Amino acid sequence: MTNRDDLIIQHFAYLVNEYGFRVTKKERDPRPNWNAYVVFESSNIGIRVAVEMNEVGIDMGNYSDTVYDWSDFRNIMKYYAPQIKEVYVLTRKTPETTWDDAVETQLVRLSGLLREYCEPLLRGEKLAKDEIKKIGKDQISGWFK
């Protein structure tokens, strides 16, 4: 069994190796199969990848903003790849798999989406914060209609 913070780093290693990001923070609950997160930062953007209750999520933002002001990856994908309808596809444990398998499947998918569709951000383009926040607000207001 791999520690989940190490698993995150493994699947997002291209951020460090190809785009010059650095790991600025990583934490994990010491119990097996529990929560973990890793923050990757470049000179322009921060990316927080978290595993919480066997679900993987990503938040992104300008490194100078607090992580609470960052945007959810699904809103960023609506800006960069609106044709992708389901960003988070949650994988569950089955009799043939483990929770680690389910988490790894999600990490593979999300690291691939980030790499394929968000390359301008990875190369250093500033986050289109206002436009992405508007997408997030539109999504939230749609929930209440």
Walkthrough of the structure:
The protein is an alpha+beta fold and 145 residues long. The chain has one domain. Helix content is 43%, strand content 21%. It has six helices and five strands. A five-stranded antiparallel sheet has the order 1-2-3-4-5. β1 (22-28) and β2 form a beta hairpin.
> What does the largest sheet look like?
5 strands, antiparallel
Number of strands: 5
Structure annotation, total helices: 6
Question: What topology, given as strand order, has the largest sheet?
Answer: 1-2-3-4-5
What does the overall shape look like? globular
User: What is the ordering of alpha helices and beta strands?
Assistant: HHEEEEEHHHH
Radius of gyration: 15 Å
Low-confidence stretches: 140-145
The share of residues in helices is 40-55%
What is the terminal-to-terminal distance?
44 Å
Task: Name the beta content range.
Answer: 15-25%
Class by alpha and beta content = alpha+beta
List the domain count as a whole number: 1
From the structure above, extract its key features.
145 residues; alpha+beta; five-stranded antiparallel beta sheet
